[in-house]
Specification:
The protein has nine helices and nine strands. By secondary structure, the chain is α+β, with helices and mostly antiparallel strands. A hairpin with a 7-residue loop joins strand 5 and strand 6. Helix 1 packs parallel to helix 3, helix 4 runs antiparallel to helix 5 and helix 5 packs parallel to helix 7. The longest helix is centred in the middle third of the chain and has 33 residues. It is globular and about 65 Å long.
Length: 311
């Protein structure tokens, strides 16, 4: 399977690159990131990038390629979830999309007034346009706006029968895409840092121990993005789960190594690394634990007889 962008996709990436050029520089603090991301979201929607899956000759893979640029920015914009799910579920989604699993009790990214909540509830989904009285904002250092549905509205919304499988499939793809793009931004930032930070008379990137560990992080990032593109092209649950499981597995390693090579300033709000690694920490726990996700992948890939190790 050739996942290299074709000429049309290269032109698409050039267009989105020009649109987001002014957002490449990080703001001074997380709060400003959340405020400015609303403007970035508006520009992406007005330019039509959020509906790319619906365009003739384009599809999920094109949305994924655009998302790799968007989610590598130091801004917490909701893009790939709504871009994939709008097309997969044939929905005109208003505002950022918040993805939830019933009973929808936990804090969720992008759940705020004006967003659309898609709640997977068994085999069905519930679609809920969120207003201010439905949600409690949740303060968080994770560089994402978080909210929690109030108990009285957790069972509300318009029901779409039998759509939960499609939601979970593309949610796994979206999660892998976002982890891959965010992880790449973190690794790229630190690779530039070790090229310039000098110790004992030479850049710390000249030491093999540093090179080996960051090369392993780079390989992991490329693997995440390849699996996510493959999942978007195939559109199968097994491919989607494989991408999200590998992405989750790589998260702790990338967070640890990038912070270790950055040093103490990397954990402060004055340095931009936290815009990426704090997001990775939250993404790592989405859709359940790594063990839960791996079990779902094994169940999808093999039959119960294949998994019966007691024989």
């Amino acid at each position: 399977m050739d996942l290299t962008p074709n000429p049309d996709q290269s032109g698409l990436l050039d267009s989105v690159g020009k649109l987001v050029a002014s957002f490449r520089a990080p703001p001074p603090n997380t709060r400003e990131t959340l405020l400015t991301s609303c403007n970035l979201d508006r520009q992406l929607r007005e330019a039509g990038f959020s509906d790319i899956v619906r365009y003739e000759g384009m599809g999920p893979l094109d949305a994924v390629l655009v998302a790799e640029t968007v989610h590598a920015l130091p801004y917490s914009v909701e893009f790939i979830g709504s871009a994939l799910l709008g097309g997969a579920l044939d929905l005109d989604l208003t505002g950022p999309v918040a993805l939830l699993e019933a009973p929808a009790e936990a804090p969720v990214r992008f759940l705020a007034a004006g967003s659309t909540a898609l709640i997977a509830d068994g085999d069905d989904i519930r679609i809920l346009l969120v207003t201010a009285d439905m949600v409690d904002p949740v303060p968080s250092p994770f560089a994402y706006p978080l909210g929690k549905l109030k108990p009285g509205v957790r069972r509300a919304g318009t029901v779409r029968t039998g759509a939960a499988s499609a939601l979970r499939l593309w949610w796994n793809v979206a999660l892998a895409v976002e982890i891959g793009a965010t992880a790449k931004a973190a690794v790229d930032l630190i690779v530039d840092y070790v090229k310039n930070r000098r110790q004992f008379g030479k850049p710390i990137g000249a030491y093999q121990a540093v090179q080996h560990r960051l090369s392993e992080c780079t390989v992991a990032v490329h693997a995440i993005q390849t699996l996510a593109r493959r999942a978007a092209a195939l559109g199968t649950l097994e491919a989607a789960l494989a991408a999200s499981v590998y992405a989750k597995e790589a998260c702790p390693r990338i967070i640890y190594d990038t912070h270790q090579f950055q040093g103490a300033i990397g954990v402060t709000y004055e340095y931009p690394l936290h815009f990426f690694t704090y997001r990775l920490r939250l993404l790592h726990g989405e859709l359940g634990s790594l063990a839960d996700s791996a079990e779902r992948l094994a169940t999808e890939r093999w039959s119960e007889d294949d998994l019966d190790w007691s024989r």
